[in-house]
Structure prediction request, 338 residues.
Amino acid sequence: MVEGAPLAISLGDPAGVGPELIAAAWAARDSQELLPFVVTGGPDVLREAAARRGLNVPVRQVFHPNEAADCFAFALPVLDGADGEYTPGEPSRAGAELALASLHEATGLAQAGEVSGIVTAPVSKARLAEVGFEHPGQTEFVAYACGYAPGDAVMMLAGPNLRAVPITVHIALSEVPHQLTSALIERKARITAMALARDFGIERPRIAIAGLNPHAGEEGRMGDEEARIIAPAIELLRAEGLDVSGPFPPDAMFTARARATYDVALCMYHDQALIPLKALDFDQGVNVTLGLPIIRTSPDHGTAFGIAGTGQADPGAMIAAICMAGDCAMRRAGLFDD
Prediction:
């Protein structure tokens, strides 16, 4: 990573809220103290999205990320390259191709060390599939691009009030008991602990692990996964010196009092992690990928085609994703004073 390199932001689906939120984040750059960033493509899309939102956002096309710092104070830097039409609320194949090209470019720049990290704006997985995207989501794509197996990249949702990691992610709920293993819990807990220390400055993170069943199984009356799978993983992780506790009844571990006792919650399936995060921190929630050689964050919301171009979308999660990526990059560079 080049010292002082900017962040890269991928455009996301141009028919969604991504472009207008990127423009809104740049407009708030001073008040939010954002590090310089460059957008990978879509200069015309960004101009029109900003204008539709009523924002004065001059767009400056640049040819290399290192030009971003020179103009960031007075213009939104956008790398010369792919572009398209701004059609809010009307996704198209051309828009999906632009989103994918932008994602490829941002990831490649991070791998080459030309940017300090990437922030990925929301995409439509269904639309991307139509243009050859074969991954469950952007998390898996970035992991694959880095040469990592999907299981070695951990998705963490983070906001001001909660950090949560789903152990199983994009699978049917009926498949969770079959996919859940002690080894999977152990691997994701280790990756999470290492990443929280390296990228978030938490030297010895406290990890709370949720049960799978109501009341954490209630001593086997409502399922045996806690005793058979989860508790052995916790015992092994403790033996390795990690600060791990649980399994806790999922319906009680997200209260304010409970959250004060841990730094991250490891949850057994997707909604067990995302429902409390979105209930507590929807407008500031960030999806961050742990365990990779590059930094990647994303606002924890979707394309919101239904409100794209209306000015209703809140830029809080995009700004939070940019701030988090910048903080992580500074810690990796040894520039962040915790």
